[in-house]
Amino acid sequence: xxxxxxxxxxxxxxxxxxxxxxxxxxxxxxxxxxxxxxxxxxxxxxxxxxxxxxxxxxxxxxxxxxxxxxxxxxxxxxxxxxxxxxxxxxxxxxxxxxxxxxxxxxxxxxxxxxxxxxxxxxxxxxxxxxxxxxxxxxxxxxxxxxxxxxxxxxxxxxxxxxxxxxxxxxxxxxxxxxxxxxxxxxxxxxxxxxxxxxxxxxxxxxxxxxxxxxxxxxxxxxxxxxxxxxxxxxxxxxxxxxxxxxxxxxxxxxxxxxxxxxxx
Length: 264
What we know:
Layout: E1 6-8, E2 16-17, H1 54-61, E3 64-69, E4 72-78, E5 84-87, E6 106-112, E7 115-128, E8 143-147, E9 158-159, E10 168-175, E11 179-191, E12 200-203, E13 215-218, E14 224-234, E15 247-253, H2 257-263
């Protein structure tokens, strides 16, 4: 019997809770908000478990924030400079190809120096893989937005080299309510596409609702973006299970047209 893979534009939030934050542990649940992939918790960064505090997060991963746009909440990050935010295209554009800003203001929320800042974010239809991401292949689901004013006091992420299968990565999330979390996981496959755009990344990172647009970051004290999380595909979306060809999270590489959009 052939099983159909179902796509969900969601990301899992967490395997490791930071000191000072309320733990947000992954657990199997039912429905579209299910945890679908159990990632490899390699703890491959320079920061050992149990010793990751707020200052360490701000130093390495402080460029990660939350995007609220037209009723959608997702993840974004400062990239390249203090007024550019990268995320998934479906975080900024709806099923009809319209900017979510038409349904409510877009804001980027980030912790800076112990305070939370909320800054207007403008989607830019000339800097995205597609304004109709729901009807496109996943590697088109990336976008760059511009902030009304730059964020200072935070080091933006740089773009890294294209990832390779087997490479360890880090997926970071932040929200004012939940605090800061990180998932250490692994690139399993990089899929070439024929249109010359970014490639699709398949990973064993945790998959759960609400955090599309989070960066796939290199490990270590100077993280670089190698991709953007889009969602997950699963033949059994209500169950937690290891990575397989029918059960995985995926995103797009931060190269080619993506890289040009950030540099423009």
